Amino acid sequence: MGRYIRDIVLNKPNDFVAFMINDYLNKEGFKLVEFKGQQVFRCGGGLFEMPKFLVWNYQNGVFHMEAWVRICWLPGVYGKENEIKGFNGALPKQMYKQSLEELERLLQQPLPNDNNQGGVNMSENNNQGVNNLLNQGTYNQGMYNQGMYNQGMPNQGMQNQGMYNQGMPNQGMPNQGMQNQGMYNQGMPNQGSYFNQPPTYVQGVDTGRYAGLSLGFSIAGLLGLLIPILGVIFASLGITYSRKAAKGSKTGMATAAMVIGIITMVISIINWAAGIYIVLNR
Fold first, then answer.
1. How far is it, in rounded angstroms, from Cα 130 to Cα 189?
2. At what angle do helices 228-245 and 210-220 cross, to 10 degrees?
3. Band of the pLDDT at 198, cuts 50, 70, 90?
4. pLDDT band at 91 (very low <50, low <70, confident <90, very high)
5. With pLDDT > 70 as the criterion, what percentage of the chain qualifies?
6. Which residues sit opposite 74 in a β-bridge?
7. Strand pairing partners for 165?
């Protein structure tokens, strides 16, 4: 087993760490699944994106993370665990590693009144890390209150894009259907209002780095005019990565990649169908 393992001393609020991880998982497209008897976060089904896996835990100020990939031979049929390096699947592995390194940097960003100006990497490759609890399978999709993980049902109906509450729990009505952009409340409990204190902004995950790649794949889909199957593959890759890029800072380029990908996909399919029709009617 060759996992990418990190143990980093952060000494930051639990709710901040949980929010940053949640932001990363949502924007990268990870979903909580049960895999081989263990609850893990997985991204990619294997058809057009290499399956990526991640588990994490934060306890006593130490952030523990394990990440790996698997080769997908058929839908639902995976090979053994692979390290996030090597020639096989080099591009998606490199992109996954870069995203994890960016996450580590964001977790170590300074906070207001934070004496710890960055974490310390305790282990470069330590297989003896803390066991991943994953909040007993009920990680919150949104807000984390008072540095504690809710052990009940997940909070649903709210998508936080950079906000977490630091202080006492919310005691008013739950925030539902509101999208918060890049802030957290630092102060006393919210009792019937959304914000009691001026917001403090933190840097979130930016998936805009996928925009150029998605645009390149979508344009390469024009190969479908000559070889339809290549057009379908490249167009599909362009559409897949443009969805991630659209959640980042380069939404314009991501939108262009999506549109071009759809167009080249349609052209490739029509060309493919026309070729089959000509062959059958000779």
1. 32
2. 160
3. low
4. confident
5. 66
6. 77
7. 185
Q: What length is written for the chain? A: 282
Which pLDDT tens digit goes with each residue over 164-176? 444 444 444 444 4
Q: Which residue has the tokens 């902004």?
A: 201
Burial class from Cβ neighbours inside 10 Å (0-12, 13-18, 19+) for residue 172 reads exposed
Is beta strand 62-74 parallel, antiparallel or unpaired with respect to 4-9? antiparallel
Beta strands in 29-151 (DSSP E): 31-35, 38-43, 52-59, 62-74, 77-82, 120-123
**pLDDT tens per residue across span 123-157:** 443 333 333 333 333 333 333 333 333 333 334 33
Which structure tokens are listed for 40? 């893990």
Number of neighbours of residue 23 by Cβ within 10 angstroms: 23
Candidates 17, 85, 204, 139; CA nearest to 8 is 17
d(CA 130, CA 66): 10
Pairing of strands 120-123, 165-167: unpaired
Phi, psi angles (nearest 5°) of residue 65: -140, 140
